[in-house]
């Protein structure tokens, strides 16, 4: 199979290795593995009735218990700058990556602040913690709902 050619939109630097581009293009932003694990654990604990990627509130939380005003974000460690595992940042194109990842963290803080101003409780679950013990992370959500 011939190598795939990728259309560039100018937002990201051209990778030095085309395999990097192929891998990055397959990264999801919705319905990620950690998010699916959390949803499965929530259902196992009897916590249903949530909305996915609820667009009627700031930040489109991954999981929103609308009636109880609880927003859950399931953040990937690399993309959102996990304070627990502190993932390394890329060494190539550092200017681009530092600006992008710093802006992601700023945007996360803005979303949380806007939701709290609107009267919502916000919980952020981190990919590394979800993989270690998804039931413990689902219990954090359950405590907010209680």
Keywords, separated by commas or semicolons:
Endonuclease, Chain A, 146 residues, alpha+beta
Tell me about this structure.
By secondary structure, this protein is an alpha+beta fold. It has one domain: 3-Layer(aba) Sandwich (Endonuclease, Chain A). It is 45% helix and 12% strand. It is built from six helices and four strands. Helix 2 crosses helix 6. The longest helix has 24 residues, at 94-117. The N and C termini lie far apart (54 Å).
Q: Topology, pairings included?
A:
Elements: H1 18-25, H2 33-44, E1 51-52, E2 63-65, E3 70-75, H3 77-80, H4 94-117, E4 121-126, H5 127-132, H6 134-145
Parallel strand pairs: 3-4
Antiparallel strand pairs: 1-2, 2-3
Helix pairs in contact: 2-6
Q: Taking strands numbered 1, 2, ... along the chain, how are they ordered across the largest sheet? A: 1-2-3-4
Question: Order of helices and strands, N to C?
Answer: HHEEEHHEHH
Q: What is the average of the pLDDT values? A: 89
Q: What's the overall geometry?
A: globular
């Amino acid at each position: 199979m011939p190598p795939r050619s990728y259309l560039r939109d100018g937002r990201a630097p051209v990778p030095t290795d085309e395999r990097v581009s192929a891998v990055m293009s397959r990264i999801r932003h919705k319905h990620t593995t950690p998010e699916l694990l959390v949803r499965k654990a929530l259902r196992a604990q009897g916590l249903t009735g949530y909305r996915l990627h609820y667009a009627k509130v700031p930040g489109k939380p991954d999981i929103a218990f609308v009636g109880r005003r609880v927003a859950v974000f399931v953040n990937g460690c690399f993309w959102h700058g996990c304070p627990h595992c502190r993932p390394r940042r890329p060494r190539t194109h550092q200017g681009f990556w530092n600006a992008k990842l710093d802006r992601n963290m700023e945007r996360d803080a803005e979303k949380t602040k806007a939701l709290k101003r609107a009267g919502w409780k916000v919980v952020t679950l981190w990919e590394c913690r979800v993989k270690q013990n998804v039931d413990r992370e689902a219990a954090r959500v359950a405590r907010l709902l209680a």
